[in-house]
Each structure stands twice: as structure tokens, then as C-alpha cells.
């Protein structure tokens, strides 16, 4: 038996979330991992609060990522995405089992706690940075904007970009987090309401590139204000799934909109992202954005993460 956060759905469609002792026979085939740490992400909040049809199989253990030790080799591994916590039993538990190819061996310099603190949010941030680099966005070309900057993806993105020498502008709807964002390396704070309304076809050019976790009007405004031949890496939809924009930034300024999907990335790219995280994310900044909670605190945090009240990264010690 092992302890897990279990989501169950009754015949009437009502969903309940509770801690439970689960038999190992419930685990699917695959490499068994003794989970040490997981996290709570936006998707996990949606699943636990039943705010969106994230879960596709019942009963379900949520948790879209985890870090721990393989039971067969003792190797330290991390998992992000692949539908874990949605259609495959997830990481908010003391044990998990997944196909071999889903696991990434941790770089030697990262602990399992640090890997969980980075989590899917930080891994997604690194994929966004790689996208900007692939499209030629270098520090000498001008500032780079990060939207939703006080959240998990945004916090890690700010820290990585600053470490790489970029001038980072951080957009947030929480002005009280300005000191926190400056600590991570942001040089300027952009108010969320500057970007939240309807966008012009083309605005004043402000940023050489951007990492956007918000979508909708915010993404449209960012595109309209991106420099010629700049790139915007889009990875989230906190404001909405729509994109009320025009083709003007693309055909008149040559702006690239690079979509970043962290769920089904090929293994080699995952390994590269984690290698870069180990070298380009300062540990002291990771510590500054991380809060560790026990497994029994997760249910109470679901509404907070959906309401945008959670700063940085929440690590879940599944054995506490």
C-alpha cells in the first residue's frame, strides 16, 4: 500500500478528492518509481477542483510531474507531462509507474527536491528559452518580456533569462510581487493591465522577444509590440485560449509565434532542457521561489493556484 491523493467520480458526475491508501496493484505496467517529491501545477488545480475536464480516466491520482528513485536501479529520475495525472496515474503519491521512455535521468548537480521545484513549469520555461534562442533572440537585441511572471513558469523564466544576460521585463497583475521579481533578475515591472485589453494591429516596438503564459489579449498585445524578426514563445492560457490578433506582426515585422507544448516532447529534447536547467538556473533563485508543503496540504491549494494567488513553485513532499 502507498499514500496518494485520489480523485474519484461517482455515477452522478460528482468528483471527490481525498488522501487514500492505494494498493500497488492499481499501478499500471512500467518502471516503478519511489516518488520523493511532486508539485502542484495549474492543470493539477483544475483536476482537483474539477474546474475543467482535465481528467480522462477514473479513478485518478493527479500530479503532472514527479521526481524520485527508480525501484529497479535506484537511479534518480524526473517525469514531466505525457498525460500523467490526466489519463495516467500521476505523481501526487508515494509511488508511480510509467513507461521507460517517459523518464529523464537527473543531472548530477540537481537533487530530486530541486527537480520537483523546477517541475513542469520550469521545464516548460526552459523549452521557451530554447525556442527564443533557436529564433535568434540574443541578449544584445533588446529586452525580453515574461508574462504571468510571478507564477511558476514565469518565475523560472525570469531567473533563467537574467542568468543568461538578458534584460528581463516582468509582467504581473500583482504589484506587491515587484521585489520578488527584481530578486529573480527582472529589471522592469510591466503592469498586467497594460497588456490585458484589445490590441492594436501594430504597437510601439518594446521587446526583442517574449515568453507568454497568459494568451488571449495579452499575447495579442505582446505580438504587436515585438521588434522586427523577434520571437514570442507561447506556452499558456491563463487569460484565455483565444488570440484576438491580426497578421500584421507576422507579415510586416517578421515576428515569429513559437508554440511550446511540454507534454509530448521527444526524449532528446527533454534531456537537453534538463541539462540546460542544471547549468542556467541559479540554485539560490530556485530556492527563493520554492515553498515545500506536505501531501495533505494539496487539496487546499487547488483554488489558490487557479485564482493566481500562488507565488513561484510549490513542492509537495509526498512522504510528509
TrEMBL record:
Residues 13-316 form the Enoyl reductase (ER) domain. One of its GO terms (molecular function) is acryloyl-CoA reductase (NADPH) activity. It holds the Pfam family ADH_zinc_N. NCBIfam families: oxido_YhdH. This is Unannotated protein.
Amino acid at each position: 500500500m502507498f499514500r496518494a491523493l485520489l480523485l474519484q467520480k461517482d455515477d452522478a458526475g460528482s468528483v471527490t478528492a481525498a488522501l487514500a491508501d492505494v494498493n500497488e496493484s492499481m499501478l499500471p505496467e512500467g518502471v516503478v518509481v519511489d516518488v520523493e517529491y511532486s508539485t502542484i501545477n495549474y492543470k493539477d488545480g483544475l483536476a482537483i477542483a474539477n474546474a475543467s475536464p482535465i481528467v480522462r480516466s477514473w479513478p485518478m491520482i493527479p500530479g503532472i510531474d514527479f521526481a524520485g528513485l527508480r525501484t529497479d536501479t535506484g537511479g534518480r529520475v524526473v517525469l514531466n507531462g505525457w498525460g500523467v495525472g490526466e489519463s495516467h496515474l500521476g505523481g501526487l503519491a508515494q509511488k508511480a509507474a510509467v513507461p521507460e521512455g517517459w523518464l529523464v535521468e537527473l543531472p548530477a548537480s540537481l537533487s530530486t527536491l530541486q527537480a520537483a521545484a523546477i517541475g513542469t513549469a520550469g521545464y516548460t520555461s526552459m523549452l521557451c528559452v530554447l525556442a527564443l534562442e533557436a529564433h535568434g533572440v540574443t541578449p544584445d537585441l533588446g529586452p525580453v518580456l515574461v508574462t504571468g511572471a510571478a507564477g511558476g513558469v514565469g518565475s523560472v523564466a525570469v531567473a533563467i533569462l537574467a542568468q543568461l544576460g538578458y534584460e528581463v521585463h516582468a509582467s504581473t497583475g500583482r504589484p506587491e510581487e515587484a521585489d520578488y521579481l527584481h530578486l529573480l533578475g527582472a529589471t522592469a515591472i510591466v503592469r498586467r493591465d497594460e497588456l490585458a485589453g484589445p490590441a492594436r494591429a501594430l504597437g510601439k516596438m518594446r521587446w526583442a522577444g517574449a515568453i507568454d503564459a497568459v494568451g488571449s489579449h495579452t499575447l495579442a498585445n505582446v505580438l504587436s509590440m515585438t521588434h522586427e524578426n523577434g520571437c514570442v514563445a507561447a506556452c499558456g492560457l491563463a487569460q484565455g485560449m483565444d488570440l484576438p490578433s491580426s497578421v500584421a506582426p507576422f507579415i510586416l515585422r517578421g515576428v515569429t509565434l513559437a508554440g511550446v507544448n511540454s507534454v509530448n516532447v521527444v526524449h532528446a529534447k527533454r534531456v537537453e532542457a534538463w541539462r540546460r536547467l542544471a547549468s542556467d538556473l541559479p540554485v539560490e533563485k530556485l530556492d527563493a521561489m520554492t515553498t515545500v508543503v506536505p501531501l495533505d496540504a494539496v487539496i487546499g491549494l487547488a483554488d489558490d493556484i487557479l485564482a493566481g494567488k500562488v507565488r513561484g513553485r510549490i513542492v509537495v513532499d509526498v512522504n510528509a
